[in-house]
Amino acid sequence: MPGQPLAGVFYILCCECPKREIPEEVQSVRHFNTDIIVEAVVRCLRVINPSVGSTLSHVLPPGMSARFRIGTSLAQACQDLGYTGEVGYQTFLYSSEPDIRALLIFLAEKLPRHSQEDADQPAGKSAVLQREIATKIKQQLGLPWLPPSCRTAAAKRSQSLCRLHRFHAQSLSLAGDTSSKSIAPERKEYWERYLPFVSTQLPHAYSLAASLLERNASDLSAVQEWEAEWKSQGLASRLSPEEYRSRKRQRLHKRIQDQFRQCSQQLGENNVPSSSTQDLMDMLKAFTVEGGTDQNKGSRFTHAQKFTHQQDPQVLTEQMQRAAESLPKKDTQDAQAEQEELSSLQQQIEDMERDIQALAESTKLLHLTISQVGEEAGKLQQQCDEKENLVKVKKRAVELLPDAENNLVKLQTMVDSSTQRMVNLVGQWETHRVRLMDEYRELRRLQQEKEDESSRWMKDVKDLYDKIRSAADEAKRKEELYKQLVSEYESLPKDVSRAAYTQRILEIVSNIKKQKEDITKVN
Questions:
Q1: How many Å apart are CA 253 and CA 107, to the nearest integer?
Q2: In 3D, which of 86, 130, 127, 125 has the Cα closest to residue 106?
Q3: Who is most buried in 206, 328, 501, 507, counting CB within 10 A?
Q4: Residue 191: is it exposed, middle or buried by C-beta count within 10 angstroms (0-12/13-18/19+)?
């Protein structure tokens, strides 16, 4: 196939620009248009010599002069690489298949041959960044250590301890997946509008990298632990990941229920007042089925649903507080102080929530007011511009009124001169147009003659190719016939004399003659 040596060019077009879609009808160089030719040459030059290819654009501009400059630059770059054929701007803008094929084959041969080590290295931004970091560390490790008095400015920056800090990681608040439907709208709004950047969440800037690394390590560890648990236990359970998590959550709920039941039994055995155990029993009801039946009766889905949805979180919190208050205390004053502090904190939280809600409403109102004011300001600015243009026109007309007759004469003179200049330009353009049309027709005729001659040559070449192929088939057939005759000749006995063959031939001839006579008699 004629396009096989150019497979490297198609590979460069697809790998250097993954978003580049080559039409399906482009199967060889014959189907290349000007845009594909320029892009293929530029991307090959970028691979061969990045310093030269990076300065060239692979997209052709609409202007003819800019196209001419790009074609000339490409031709010069190909000549600098050692291309000895004819190449110029016309090679790219008015291309022919033989010239483009020869040029692309030359560029394909100039493409660098990557070693096996480079081929095995991973590609991507992450791999490139890791290689750059490793190279930088090797360079720094290769520098000799110098005492502080002998260090230059660069050595002080790389070998000084003043910029080193202790690895101190702090917790970060990051936004989750806002596309999930299970997240509350208030949380999404907080993530989008009020959550500060990670760089402003930390008191010291030098702890940002450590905090990010620690957070990334914890996330990766959680993912790895889940994958290990899923591969070891989840797959064996023959459940989906969601069902497996639900079962695990149900088991955790059951363990909490058992702990509550044990605590209530211990309190009953220790003769603790009934008011102390009542709240624990109320909390235990959060894990029971509605209607007073025990949790052991019913499905796990029913248990999880009752625990998740039926019990109000605020009621559950109040019950836990009452149970904690009802237990025997060693120090009543400390408990009272903690209770007062808890109530004050709850009051502060409620006040802050009210303030946040009021601020949110005022912010929405301010945003709405700002948008309305902006629209009104745009309309006023547009009206102001229109009025300014009208004032300028009227001002110019008022300035011309005192000497209206002379101004009319001047204006008429300017109109006449403009008309005369337009007529002259039309005449000049007509002269150039006639010459250019004649030149265009002549070039079209020459091009048509070249195309006809090229078609005739292609037909002759095709006929010659068919003759060569038929001659080759004929030669192959005769070669096989020759081999067959040689094998038959070698299989014939060698002890038979020539006289015997002659006698046998004469007998056959006489028999044939006799048969003809018999046929004649019969007729």
A1: 69
A2: 86
A3: 206
A4: middle
Q: Could you tell me the maximum CA-CA distance found in the chain, to the nearest angstrom? A: 155
| Residues 6 or more apart whose Cβ sits within 8 Å of residue 87 | 75, 78, 79, 99, 103
Gap between the Cα atoms of 129 and 135, Å rounded: 10
First to last CA, the chain: 65
**C-beta atoms surrounding 165 within 10 Å:** 12
Its pTM stands at 0.29
Per-residue pLDDT tens for 258-276? 777 777 777 666 655 555 5
Band (pLDDT 50/70/90 cuts) for residue 9 is low
**Helix H or strand E encompassing 422:** helix 404-491
The phi-psi region of residue 152 (left if phi > 0; otherwise alpha if psi is between -120 and 50; otherwise beta) is: beta
**pLDDT class of 329 with cuts at 50, 70, 90:** very low
Task: Quote the CA–CA distance of 236 and 230 in Å, as a whole number.
Answer: 8
Under 8 Å CB-to-CB from 312, ≥6 apart: which residues?
Answer: none
Q: Is 58 in contact with 16 (CB distance < 8 Å)?
A: no
* Residue recorded with tokens 């040459």: 41
DSSP states of 50-105: HHHHTTS-SS--SSHHHHHHHHHHHHHHHHHTT--S--SHHHHHS--HHHHHHHHH
Report how far residue 90's alpha carbon sits from residue 153's, in angstroms, rounded to the nearest whole number. Answer: 54
> What is the dihedral sign for C-alpha 39, 43, 45, 50?
positive
Measured in whole angstroms, how far is the alpha carbon of residue 146 from the centre of its chain? 46
Tokens representing 16?
Answer: 């250097």
Q: Do residues 35 and 17 make contact, with C-beta atoms less than 8 angstroms apart?
A: no
CB 14 within 8 A of CB 109: no
Q: Which of 13, 11, 72 is nearest to 41 (CA)?
A: 13
